[in-house]
Structures are given as structure tokens and as C-alpha cells.
């Protein structure tokens, strides 16, 4: 393409030139092209190139919605100029996760007089600044904010409260016990609450959710249609959410159609919550449901709840049996064509007829899965991870064969043991890798099987005849895939010391390795891939296939692959990375990982990389190599390394990176720290929530929330 002011070679006419002038395209095509350019670049740079682009860059289709949430190059001055130039044209503004911008940046949002939707999650906003800003936004209907320690609702002006009274959608992330602005929002239809309150203050004092009892105002839920609450670990979060729910238990909104509570660990049911659920069973028909496992286990709740056109169900970590799932939720195969997202993560008995006398490792009942597939034929997101879903030897009834009927799937999470080809396992004697103990003890030398590195040779080894190969071939439009060991747990859990020991993989998973990874390379449109605890990775050759074939891959997470005492796939990983031109996020969790010059040289080929996280017990790093990598990869704004190096080495490297690159990369976030250090949890609490939730902490993300929960 020839851009404006680009000259054609002397002696050659424009018609004879092989180039095409960009300005010859129609306005519609140009607007479509420009829609992929960050708004800050459009307004501050591109529109200054020529008159035509100056007009197009200010078209309403480009200025109506401004997304700054992952524009890591934006700074205070750019935001100020952007608001000055097009503030009155902006109707939707998303600044979520812009943690690097000073709080004074929010003052410039007041220029956006016509704002209808505003997302400031992860931004530094005080009570006074929030009051001043909202006082000018009379058309606002959707708001997302954080409530931090020191928030004082009494500082909100009457004009601010008037704006809040018209807000119908509120997303509120709580870092301190408080109602926040909820009592001011008297017209709420959608309420999303994220509880991130720590049990202890930085000074070590125990916190209490009862601090908010003295507040005189209470939430107004009479118009509520969607209630969502996600709790981080900790008893304070549970105390606070109970106070939010207390109002709901008194009078359940008649129009409530989505009720979702995501709570880790044990969250006991109380008399108030039982009254709430009983009231819901009598008065509402739901389209989306998620409840803590203790509220479902052993109760007949699901039998009494009524559903309209459900689009999302999550029974994560519940002991719900497949029999109850079919009878009480799927209703014998009726009315579930509307379901697009289903989370059965950790639901260990969901594919068995009953759970009373069943062991978690017993074979699944394929008829239950078949009923699920037939009834929910429009599923786009399915999570079956964190459970042992073992298929029987019956021909045609393997889990992978049944799932291949779900042609609309966009994201899928499976346990490693569920993709094993049962007949192949029965006929094949144990390989050397099966006999290697999955421990951190003395390393055992074994003969390494050589796998060819191209897809054609892989096919010659007949791996395409496996059920998993066939599944990958049938899900051509899959964008997100997670294959996670049923007993895998990350070495870095939330709010706790690092885990020092890991459980061995499931026996059924022992044969899953390079050939299964190679099968994933059939997913041409794959954007996100997570592989954890695949025991039979011998060379990692399948990773090279993925790198070559999956050219849209943006997120890659690898954890505990192959032998635990040695990184056997390092050579293949480096070859893979040379082909990952679109990769933005890379997370590696592997004991004894050596982050040296060769690794970072290969990683430097990932020209789009923005975030890197390495978690490695007894792992080592080469400081000079890290610095060289940061200098070569200009897009990297997050570097998290939790290794086996000393505190001194980690601190010196972290300081060097910040000192060298912070000025040119305003969003730069660097954490380099010993994995097993006792102060790790204190360091983790300072990591921006965007990075912590999206990459640093390992978790299954498929069907974690309803689709399009927030914009």
C-alpha cells in the first residue's frame, strides 16, 4: 500500500506501479481499516497526515467508543489531548486497568459531557475526584470503579448522587469493607461486585467486614436483573458479601434473571441465604446461575428453581451427579438450546449417574455426556477441567468423540486424563517415560524417543487416528483450549505461601504427550492455549507444530510438562517461539527452568509480546540476558519472574529494569522475587489486578464468567 506523501519510483507511472494508493479505497473500507488503530494514534497522529484522514479519523464510528484499557503506551498528556480534541464525541470510555496513570488524569474525563458508559476499574480514583467527575456526567448510565481504603461516601456531592441515581449498571471492585456507591444507585438493573479485601492490613491488623454496619444507607435492588459477586479467598470477603445479600433476602427483585456468586473454598449457607434461595425458587425465572458449592451440595434447590431461556450455568466444584444434572437442570433434554456457556470445573461426579458409591477415578457414563451434548447443542464455552473423566473401552462412546458433535465451541477446558485413547492405552505397554517417577528427587536418565518435527511425519505415525486428533480436527473454529492435569496445582496460589510439593498426575494421563500437542496444531484460529501436567512430553516436538500452524496464538501458558527434574522441551519451545509473531502473553511454570541467553534470544522473535511470567522452583536466570531481552522487545510492559535466585539478585535485576525502561514504558510493571521467600504474598498484593488475574496466577478461565458480562 502507498500511504499519503509516499512517492512513486521515478520514471514509473502510478498505473505501472505495483503499489496501491491507500487513499483510493472507499471511505467504508478506510473506516474499517482505521477501526483497528488505537484511538490515541488516530486522533493524535494519523489524522495529521492528510485532509482525508483528518476527516475520517474523527468519524463518529471511530470516536463513539474509546478503548484505552490495553493501550499501554498512553500517558497522562495523551489522555489530556485526546479528551480536549474529541471529548464531546465520546459516548463510551474504557480505561480499565490503566493503573499507571496518575489519579489527576481522571479530571480530564469531565470533558466527555455525553458519556453513557465509563469503566475506571483499576484506576486510582479518590472519593472527591469521583464526586467532581460524576457531577458533570449527567447522561451516564453504566459505571465501573474501585473502592479503596479511605473511600468516604459522605464526600459525594448532591450532583454526583443525582448522576448515580440514574446509573443502571454498576461494576464495583472492593478493596475495603464498604457499600461504595451502591446505596446511591437507586435505579440499578445490573450489579457486579468483585471482593478483593485482604484479611490483614499491611500493618498486620486483622480486618472485619462488620466495619460497614454503621453505614445508614442500604442498597436498592428493586429493579435488579443481574446480580454477580466474585470473591477472592478470605473470610472478610464472605462477611461483606453477606451484608450485600441481606437486602436481597428481604425482598427478591421480580425481574431478577441472573444470579451468580463465585466463591472459592467453603462458603457456608446461612438462614438468610436459604430464605433468599427459597424466595428465588418461588418468584423468579433465571437465565444464568452460579452458586457456592455448599449451597447446592446435598440440597434439593435445583429441583425447585425455574429457568426461562438459560444461557449460562456454573456448577464449579459441586458434587452434583450426572443423574441430577440431567433430571434437574437439563430437564430430560428440553429447553437447553439457549445454553451457550457451561462450567463443570471440579464437578467430579457430573458425568456419572450417582455419586454415593462412586470413586472419582471411575469411568464416566457416556450416556449422560451424550444427553448433555444433544440437549446443549449450541454450547460455545465448556469447562470440564479439574476432574477425572475417564472414558470406557466402548467403541464410539469416548468423551472426545461425543464432544466432537459440538460444532459451535469457541473455548474448551479438559483434564489431561480425559483425552487418552483408551484402546491405545490398553494395547500399548508402558513406555520408559511412564516409569519415571514424577518427583523432584534424583534425576533418572531415560532413552529419549525422537519425534519428527513436521506435521506430515507425525501423520505417518498414525497419531491422526487417535480420538483427540479427531476432536481437534472437528473443532476448527476453537479459539481457546485448556488441557490441565486433574491433580495439577500451581506453585503460586493466592494469598498463601508457594506450594513446595505437587501431586503426581493421574495414571490415565501418563501416555499424554508430544503427539497430543501436535494434534492441537490443527486449530488454525487458536488464540489461547494452556497445557499443564502432561507427563509424556519427551521432546516437546508438538509445540513446534503449534507455533507453525497456529499463527493467531496470542496467549500461551505451559506448566509442569514432562519430567519434573529437567526441562526436556526447552529446545522445542525455543523453536516454537521463533514462529509466534502474534504472541502477547507468555506464562511458564516449570521447576529447574533456566532463563538464559538462548531462551531470551528465541523469545525476542515474539515481536508482539507484552507480558511475561515465569514461575520456577529452583529455576535460574541470567540478568544480562533479561536486560538484553527487555531492550530488544519494546512492547514488553510486564515482567514477572518467581525463581530460585537469591533476594539480592532479584532486587538488583528488578531495579535495573525499572531504571532503564520505566521512562519510555509508562505501564511497565516488574516483579522479580524468590518463589519460596516468606514475603511473597506481600509482594503479590502490589501487583495490578489486571496482570494478577489474567496471567500471573494460574487458573482455568473457560466459562469462568458469563459471556459479555461486562464490556
TrEMBL record:
Domain F-box per the UniProt entry, residue ranges: 19-66
Record-linked InterPro entries: F-box-like_dom_sf, F-box_dom, FBXL18_F-box, FBXL18_LRR, LRR_dom_sf
Pfam families xref list: F-box-like (PF12937), LRR_FBXL18 (PF19729)
Source taxon at top rank: Eukaryota
GO cellular component assignments: SCF ubiquitin ligase complex
SUPFAM superfamilies documented for this protein: F-box domain, RNI-like
Single Gene Ontology BP annotation: SCF-dependent proteasomal ubiquitin-dependent protein catabolic process
Protein name: FXL18 protein
Gene from which this protein is expressed: Fbxl18
